[in-house]
Amino acid sequence: MNHKPIEGFSKLPKQGKIEWLVNEYLEGNQEYQNILKQYWNDDADLQKLHEEFSENTISNFYMPYGIAPNFLIDGKLLALPMAVEESSVVAAASKAAKFWIDKGGFKTTIINTEKLGHTHFIFNVEPHKLLHFFNFSLKKKLFETTEDITANMRKRGGGILNISLVDKTAEMPNYYQLKASFDTVDSMGANFINSCLEQFGKTLRQEVATSEDFTQEEKNSLQIVMNILSNFTPDCIVRAEVSCKIEDLKDDSGISPEEFASKFKQAVTIAEIEPYRATTHNKGVMNGVDAVVIATGNDFRATEACAHAYAAKDGQYRSLTHCTTDNGVFRFWIDLPISVGVVGGLTNLHPLVKFSLALLGKPSAQELMSILAVSGLAQNFGALRSLVTTGIQKGHMKMHLLNILNQLGATEEEKLHFVTYFKDKTVSHHEVINEFNRMRGN
């Protein structure tokens, strides 16, 4: 091995962790210590709060926190907080919001809010015998033994909605599931769901052990493999949409509303049938979704996993958004499976998350679902609008221009020159370098 393993890294103080890393991996270069420390917050209490969000923390990793204004959602005008490092995401979302503000804005519908979890177990028993045991004994016991866990959630209007037995023995020998659906109201609910499921596992073991329905050999075969929520929530769905007469789709690119609508629909259809395009298409959707998910302290990895699983639910990966142009009306929408919360987790701790939720009017979990779907739809509209008119690079590279100039060490005066220089040109890395070298006389 090129480095020595370390014992007890987590027990070292923060400075000890940094010194070990710098000495072991970075040749003792003090500059790297300085980089880490310059991102510490001067407020010691705030810095400690951030460090306690996760383990083995040595610094903070900053992301730009931007605002996309002018979102008219279900009659309310909102400014969306977006935490994202990619150029043009906030600009594209803002431009789409402005495009639709005088056309009725975005409309949303909560289709369902069920979340899922499973107790996965192995049991060498006839399926019909297990089903009888579940229906006439176990199901009732599962509800009873989780009453203490679900009490507070039930008071808020949520709880366990249903429990079913799923026979998966055709796919794996002796494999079954207890599948449960939940309503977690305004919380994302991961801890609540997992606590219920772990009790399911205990109850299943206890009830099988004392049941007269099974032989001792069958009882001995029971294995509780795991109890865990699913981040795939195909029954926790929100729809966001925009629509207007095709003749109102006036675009500053110079093409007619009819041509714009036709090309836009073709672009969406291609993403519906071609997985290579659908992957990039949906990545653009998630640019908008994830930026608001992160800004509101929710789990963007779960959001991504769920969205992409849903996009492949019929066996082929497809677009999350859809478009029609029937009877002279342009309609563009998304059905997004998403599970988020506005209480618990970072929502009660992270100061910027608190700011984001306050900015959005302290939404309920369902209202936040709507906002996230709208953000994804707007971002996708902005990207497709560019693709079928001017091309994606014109806007994206213009936003990326400052990144290139910062890499080159350009002065503020030089940056102003480049903004003017590219006012009527498409930005390319090659052209920026050429013009920069010309200015510097290289």
TrEMBL record:
<keyword id="KW-0560">Oxidoreductase</keyword>
<dbReference type="InterPro" id="IPR002202">
    <property type="entry name" value="HMG_CoA_Rdtase"/>
</dbReference>
<dbReference type="GO" id="GO:0140643">
    <property type="term" value="F:hydroxymethylglutaryl-CoA reductase (NADH) activity"/>
</dbReference>
<dbReference type="InterPro" id="IPR009029">
    <property type="entry name" value="HMG_CoA_Rdtase_sub-bd_dom_sf"/>
</dbReference>
<comment type="pathway">
    <text>Metabolic intermediate metabolism; (R)-mevalonate degradation; (S)-3-hydroxy-3-methylglutaryl-CoA from (R)-mevalonate: step 1/1.</text>
</comment>
<dbReference type="InterPro" id="IPR023074">
    <property type="entry name" value="HMG_CoA_Rdtase_cat_sf"/>
</dbReference>
<dbReference type="Pfam" id="PF00368">
    <property type="entry name" value="HMG-CoA_red"/>
</dbReference>
<keyword id="KW-0520">NAD</keyword>
<protein>
    <recommendedName>
        <fullName>3-hydroxy-3-methylglutaryl coenzyme A reductase</fullName>
        <ecNumber>1.1.1.88</ecNumber>
    </recommendedName>
</protein>
<dbReference type="InterPro" id="IPR009023">
    <property type="entry name" value="HMG_CoA_Rdtase_NAD(P)-bd_sf"/>
</dbReference>
<dbReference type="InterPro" id="IPR004553">
    <property type="entry name" value="HMG_CoA_Rdtase_bac-typ"/>
</dbReference>
<comment type="similarity">
    <text>Belongs to the HMG-CoA reductase family.</text>
</comment>
